[in-house]
Structures are given as structure tokens and as C-alpha cells.
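Exercise: predict the fold of this chain.
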Amino acid sequence: MRERSYQPGTLTPNFYLIGTPLYPAYLSLGEYGMIIEGGISSTANLLINQIKELNIPPERIKYIALTHTHPDHIGAIPHLKKLWPHLEVIGGSVAAKLLKREEAVKEFLQVDSSINENLFIRGEIAEWPPELENYAFEVDRVVSEGEKIDLGSGIVWTAYETPGHSSCHVSYHNQDEGVVVIGDATGLYDPQRDIFWPNYFNSLESYCNSIRKLATLPAATGVLSHNYLLGDFRHHFQKAMKATESYHSKMLERVNKGEDPDKVALDTAKWVYTFTNLQPFQVIYGLSKLMLKRSQSVANVEGLFAFP
């Protein structure tokens, strides 16, 4: 079986698209380089080959910056660090704590294997990544709200804490090039169907606050952790907020009319599975139940979905 070929792309003079459409990563290049997003294990070799295609010496790349610690966003890290041990992992303080837990490695291996199996069936990959003796995910440099990451040659990124999707989520903004790395802060967006699955797994209130925060950043281009590039940057946030309000309201309306919450979550999961099935259905169902609980916990909060 032959895996699909993905070529790196140039988004700005110093900002490159690597990875795959489903699991993109980005490379920012100043005097030093920074990979943004940790992908899944089966994208590690692809990232390595794409960087070679761009004729960028690996020793020039100094950092891997994480948006958050979900298994499909950290999988390539141990493989990249095995080959390039000089790389420093950047993440928020919550991410640093989470990635010290042994359970994080166990969860990674389980979810990563499931995703790789699905990608193999689809022909996205030709083989499983090699097993490693040591799966190291630790954060080497912790960044906080507003902290600058200076890559030299005028390329500076600012970190913004954007929880809601996860407690550890961080987004990154390069004001000079007008780029914001949104990550999963606005949920999963399918550009072909123009449809959102809001992903407020951690907190709906924080999720909405993060959308509002990102919408204020001066930028011409936004990039996502899945399905990557957004030109109409501000409109995306308006749509994300409306989709979140609709998702929240429809679930609560059905429950308030007396429907079984588990049935409401099951129907929601079936809808989600029609356009994203890289996770097992039971996982999507479990997340749908979780988000219903998040919605119920803020059902009486006013101004939740206000947009500037």
C-alpha cells in the first residue's frame, strides 16, 4: 500500500505548512526555527521529510510549540526528539504538569494506535511508526500569557492562554506576519461542509472567552490544528460562536423537554460521526455526554455567547 504524498507549503515568507490536512503542523523560521503542533506518531517521518524538502537544516530548528496535550497533538514529539535531541518543547504551565503524568503516556499509546489504524485503512500512511523504548513528552520551556518567543530576524510569537477545549490550551500570534495559530480553540471545523463540532470539553464559559480573546488579535491569517488554513479570519470566530450557541441550545432544549440526556448525547454523537470518524464512536459519544454536562453547568449564565 502506498501512502499519500503531502508537499510542504509556504503560507507567508517565514511560515510553512507541513504535516497532513487532518493533522497539520507549522514551521516558523527566523534565525531559529519553531515547529508548532506535535501531530501524531505516524506524521513524524513526514515532518522530517518535509523539512528536508524545504532545505532547512534540522539544527536550525530550536523548538516544538504545543497548543495542547491531547494525544493527537503530541504524538510526533518522542520520535522527533529521538532524531533531533536538541529540540526544546514549549507549552503552558498546565501542559507541563499534565505531561509529567504516567497516565499521559498510556493514553497516548492507546489513542495514537487507534488513529494510526484508521489512517492505515484510509491509505494515509503505509505503516505504523516504530515503537520507542522511551516516550518522552516533557515540556522544556513553560510559557505564560503574553510571553514572547523570539526566533530572531524579527520573527516573534506571543503565547495566549486559550482554555475551554482543554485546560492546557495555548494559541500563538505573530503580529508582524499577521498569523494566529488557533489550535483547537474553536473546535473542529470541516471546511468542505462548512460545519463545526464545538469542542468545549473542559469548560464552555472558558471556551467562549477564548474565542472572544482570539477574535481581537490583529491578523490576516488563522491556522487550525485540523484542516489548517483560514483566510477570512474574523468571520471564522463569529461562525464558531454561533455554532457553539446553537449546539448548546439544541441539547439543552431537548433535555428540558424531558428527553433522556444519554439519548440526546447519542444522537449528537451520531451527527458528529457523519463528518469526523477518526476517533472510535464510543469516544465521540463520551465527549458528547461530557459537553452536555458542561452546557448544563452554565445554563443560566447570561451573555455567554456575546461577540464583540
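Check your answer against the key: DSSP finds eight helices and 15 strands in the chain.
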